[in-house]
Inverse folding.
């Protein structure tokens, strides 16, 4: 088949564009450390019986020198912790979120950031991040979860490490 | 664009062929496929291609990667 040389250029550029877009995403994943949320390796949990799990006592636990774990329950129509009283964390620490739901599908999006995951009953959505500066972030539910979905919101308060009150931490189970 | 001759031509193949090969008075110069060089089209396509690359990079590196904190694991 005879192909005109201009058409060869266009075909080549199209393939190059696909390669560049794919390459940028791989570069972001590997070099910039931009990952996607996952689910816990421990498998599923019984959403009707969170009292038997780490989610019986939602809150922040210290797991290392500068590492914290947040166990958060998203339920109709609040984040626990987060709604009512802000979730407080120190700036610069590695924080791993574990989020689950006892009722229906929810979502969590920390406004103005790339922190975003679905929260599925029975599964534990897990992601790790670092909040570099002391400031307050809002978080919202972004999966329709019922008539008061639009009121489901919370706050994350990032404080300087020196001001972080460790007495609010939960003890490990 | 179809000339009146073409649009009035019967649809059976031999007759259509006859119309196509008939010398047209409005043809100034006949060139082969390789001699046809739509440089303007290439320039427009090239500019659009560059725009796509630049905007994709902007969207990814500024609007996405610059929108931290991000999920790191």
């Amino acid at each position: 088949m005879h192909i005109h040389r201009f058409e060869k250029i266009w075909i080549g550029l199209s393939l190059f564009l696909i390669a560049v877009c794919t390459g940028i995403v791989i570069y972001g994943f590997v070099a910039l450390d931009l990952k996607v949320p996952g689910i816990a390796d421990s498998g599923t949990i019984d959403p009707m019986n969170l009292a038997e799990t780490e989610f019986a006592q939602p809150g922040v636990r210290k797991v290392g020198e500068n590492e914290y774990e947040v166990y958060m329950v998203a339920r109709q129509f609040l984040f626990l912790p987060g709604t009512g009283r802000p979730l407080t964390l120190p700036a610069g620490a590695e924080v791993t979120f574990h989020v689950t739901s006892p009722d229906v599908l929810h979502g969590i999006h920390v406004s103005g950031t790339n922190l975003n995951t679905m929260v599925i009953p029975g599964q534990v959505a897990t992601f790790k991040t670092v909040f570099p500066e002391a400031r307050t972030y809002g978080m919202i539910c972004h999966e329709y979860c019922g008539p008061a979905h639009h009121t489901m919101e919370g706050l994350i308060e990032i404080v300087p490490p020196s001001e972080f009150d460790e007495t609010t931490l939960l003890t490990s189970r | 664009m179809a000339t009146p001759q073409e649009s009035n031509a019967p649809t059976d193949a031999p007759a259509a062929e006859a119309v196509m090969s008939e010398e047209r008075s409005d043809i100034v110069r006949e060139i082969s496929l390789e001699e046809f060089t739509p440089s303007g089209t290439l320039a427009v396509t090239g500019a659009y291609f560059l725009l796509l690359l630049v905007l994709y990079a902007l969207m990814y590196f500024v609007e996405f990667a610059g929108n931290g904190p991000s999920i790191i694991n």
The radius of gyration of chain B is 26 Å. Residues 37-73 of chain B form one domain. Chain B touches chain A through 25 residues (CB under 8 Å). Chain B has a mean pLDDT of 77.
